[in-house]
UniProtKB/TrEMBL annotation:
Organism: Salinirubellus salinus
Extent of the signal sequence: none
Annotated protein name in UniProt: THUMP domain-containing protein
GO molecular function, one term: RNA binding
Positions of the THUMP domain: 43-154
Domain of life of the source: Archaea
Record keywords, A-Z: Methyltransferase, RNA-binding, Transferase
Keyword Membrane among record annotations: no
Pfam (any one): UPF0020
Lineage, uppermost ranks: Archaea, Methanobacteriati, Methanobacteriota, Stenosarchaea group, Halobacteria
Gene Ontology process terms (BP): tRNA processing
InterPro entries on file: DNA_methylase_N6_adenine_CS, RlmKL-like_Mtase, RlmL_1st, SAM-dependent_MTases_sf, THUMP_dom
Amino acid sequence: MRVLATTTPGLEPVAADEVAALVGSDGERSARGRLRFETDPAGLARLNLYARTLNRTNVVLHDGTVDTLADVERAATGVEWTRYLRDGQAFAVRSSRHGEHPFGSPDVASAVGQAVVDGYRDATGHRLPVDLDDPDVTLRAWVREDRFTLAVDATGPSLHDRPWRTADHGATVRPTTAAALVRFAGHRPHETLCDPMAGSGTIPVEAALAARGRPVDPTRAYALADLTFLPDGLLDRVRADHRERAIVGRTCALDTDPECAAATRTNARAAGLGVDARVADATETPVDADRVVFDPPYGHRMDGGGLRRLYEGTFRSLDRGSWRSVVVLTTREDLVPWTPDERLPVRLGRLEAAALKFER
Ligand SMILES: C[S@@+](CC[C@H](N)C(=O)[O-])C[C@H]1O[C@@H](n2cnc3c(N)ncnc32)[C@H](O)[C@@H]1O
């Protein structure tokens, strides 16, 4: 089956690498933050249970070109809806549109919704309920320029919402983004990793969970459990096949703020992990770890001179440390004194940032 997965815009190559490792498929970036690939039901389940860099997976039902709303309607009518929905299942259509069109995204949603109701009724004589607030099945309809993709959500609420996050911090990085940075750094399960500006510990916690091969959220429900075209008991079978690693490398978290060190400990405890969280100044503490991954302050709460000194001091201190790779996520590349070996442009909400990798 064709799958369209979403990830942090810019980190598609890293997400594609994780997809390849988990299900053996080569992902192709189809738009910013989107990846397309083929997999089977077990692969779809494995990604939902263990992929740390993906936000959501969708099974593609139709993919083609459109000019008019009538083309959208025709494409949605062509889907055999009795394969994807069963009597009594309430559905919703979520739509988005990019480009110049003589119609809006609500028109797309209602054209698809009508095609589903009509197609299902013509085939079965029964009417499917629509529930926009709490549907059993969510259909996604995207129009991007002249491309129309219709898909069914296999995930439900975004995977970035991790159960271990019990202590927050004003400027946390998304766990899916953190996991992608760790992967970008080339972190292997037996290696050590340190975040010298760890805030509430998102990066070290995600690194430690990835090293163990823990499920992303052991207790959550997945939309794919309600999808009639997937085999019964799929998630349980895939879970039963999985083994966690017992022995992994150490992860450490430094921050000048004692409340951040405490937040990291709280989050690590909630994740069932031991993370070495300490109060330390990154400008004065040379780090000794295989991988160093961090997102320094972007400076919204600091004056320009303070931020420049922070970057200069941190890189000077990194220079004195021992490591194999450093990955920095920042909106202030201009303050980074080294030339990266690799660079990925990353979109963080409305901010344009970059993930910079340095190797020794
Ligand atoms: C953008 S936040 C990191 C957020 C973190 N990744 C998370 O998800 O919670 C940057 C952190 O750097 C810390 N920081 C600022 N200056 C520092 C320094 N000189 N040494 C260590 N940490 C510092 C701040 O206290 C803040 O927690």
